[in-house]
Every structure is written in structure tokens, then in C-alpha cells.
Amino acid sequence: MKTILLIGLGRFGRHVAMKLHELNHQVMAVDKDEARVNEVLPYVTNAQIGDSTNEDFLASLGVRNFDVCIVAIGDNFQSSLETASLLKELGARLVVARAARDVQAKFLLRNGADEVDMVINLAMVKDGCWDDVAADIRAVREVSRGRILKVIIECCLLTEEEKRMLCRIVSDSGADYIKTSTGFSTGGATADDVRLLRTCCPPHVKVKAAGGIASLADAEEFIRLGADRLGTSRIVKIAMAQEQQAAEAAAAPQQPEASAQPEAPAQPETPEQQDTTY
């Protein structure tokens, strides 16, 4: 269990809050909009209404005490930039921020962010503007040298030819990861997607499968097919439940075996007792 400070509760921030709740992390959520804060209250440990660009307010949260600080402000890049910078100045251990463009990534990284996830420009992909797609990714890679860069290609919206082309472009760009999905679109990772990405990308490009992982069997299959990292909350909950059941079973007192008793003669079932489920 980690302690997480989540700043920004728009669509993306709410989604993150719900996923972190499923993982049983302790989350403090922050937004200056009271309505947004109230919407996430069922999913967080604590919540504060306030302006994250105000240094005194941010300092009052004790940012250095959190394992991770996530800046999820999507509608105001200036606020995102100022918040990331203040978090680092106040001693935050790890700052994760989202960026829509290379210039945003550049400023966020220079001002406190430690990792960058970028989503490909789908319009460019569908128009076949591959040089522009490649230039977009290379620009983000250039400003994020020394940090982890994950490129999300949203497999559920792509043809196989488009996926293969993006594997080549991402591999040539120097990105660290190619990632199947954002979790916001029409579908998550599939076995075929993971197999294709691993086959088409060289070993230095890691594969992250996100979404569509409903069981431990799914997770094992994706890892077998070549996924280096999984983005999921369901299997964590399943694994934790299994560990708890095992611990409870080990702690339960052992019952002595009952002595064998002669079986009573079977009685014919009445129509009401018979199992009629086919």
C-alpha cells in the first residue's frame, strides 16, 4: 500500500482516483473545484479543496510524506507546471505529470516531473502522416532524456498494419516503453496485441499491457507473451483476496476428524427436492 497525493480531479484525475482505490492505496485528492472533490470522496482516504499553485496550501499537505505525487491537471498547463515545480521544491519524492505535447513535457520535466506518458496523435496515424507521428515522439524523447518515456498507441483503434508501423516508429524513437492502451477508449490489451508488439519491437523497447486483464490467468498469459509490465487493478485485488484467504485458513483452528458413521439409507427425492437445473 502506497500513500499518494493526487492533484487535479477532472476526467483523468477521477479515473486515477478510482483505480488507486481499487488497489487499496491511501489517496489524498486535491482540486480547487468543490464539486469535483465531492465526486471522488467515495474513492479516496482524504480530500482537500484548494489551489495547488499556492505554495502555503501545498506545503500544508505535507507533500514529502507521500510516496508519489500525481499531477493530473489537464485543463490548465500553467497550473500543472507550477504545481510540479512547487512539489519538487517542497521535497516531494516522486512527481508524475501528464503532458499533451512535447513542449509541455519539456517544461514539466525541467520543473519537477520524473516520468512522461504520451499518447500518439491518432489523427496523424489515420491520415498516414507517419513522418509527423515519428517527429512528435522524437520531440518528446529529446526533452525527456534520462527519464522514462512510455508511448501509448491505443491498439483498440488501430489496424494491424498501423500497429506494425507504430512499433517501428516507437522503436526508432528511443522510447522506453510501447503501451497498448490508455484505459479510456473502447478496449484494453489483448493477447494478440501483446504478441504483436513484442514480436515487432526490439528487446530494448519494453511492452506494457494495460486494460483487459481480468484474471491472474490473463496476467500470466500476457507475461508469457512478452509483456514487461502490466497496467491493471483487478488482478491485484484478486491476488490480495487470495492471500487473505490463505492467511485466514492458516490461522483457523484445525477441526478433529469426525468418526465414521454408517450412512443412512437414501430416501427418494420428492419433486420439490430434485435438482431441475440443466
Question: How does this model look, in words?
Answer:
β4, α4 (77-89) and β5 (95-97) form a beta-alpha-beta unit. This protein is of the alpha/beta class and 278 residues long. It has a 5-stranded parallel beta sheet, with helices on both faces. It has a 5-stranded parallel beta sheet with strand order 6-7-8-9-10, covered by helices on one side. It is built from 11 helices and 10 strands.
Q: What pattern of helices and strands is seen along the backbone? A: EHEHEHEHEHEHHEHEHEHEH
Strand order of the largest sheet: 3-2-1-4-5
Compute the separation of the termini in Å.
44 Å
Please state roughly what percent of the residues sit in beta strands, choosing from under 5%, 5-15%, 15-25%, 25-35%, 35-45% or over 45%: 15-25%
User: With helices defined by DSSP (H or I, 4 residues minimum), what is the helix count?
Assistant: 11
Share of helix, binned: 40-55%
List the helices and strands and how they pair.
Elements: E1 3-7, H1 11-22, E2 26-31, H2 34-40, E3 46-49, H3 55-60, E4 68-71, H4 77-89, E5 95-97, H5 102-110, E6 115-119, H6 122-126, H7 130-143, E7 148-152, H8 160-173, E8 177-179, H9 191-200, E9 206-210, H10 216-225, E10 229-231, H11 234-251
Parallel strand pairs: 1-2, 1-4, 2-3, 4-5, 6-7, 7-8, 8-9, 9-10
Helix pairs in contact: 4-5, 5-7, 7-8, 9-10
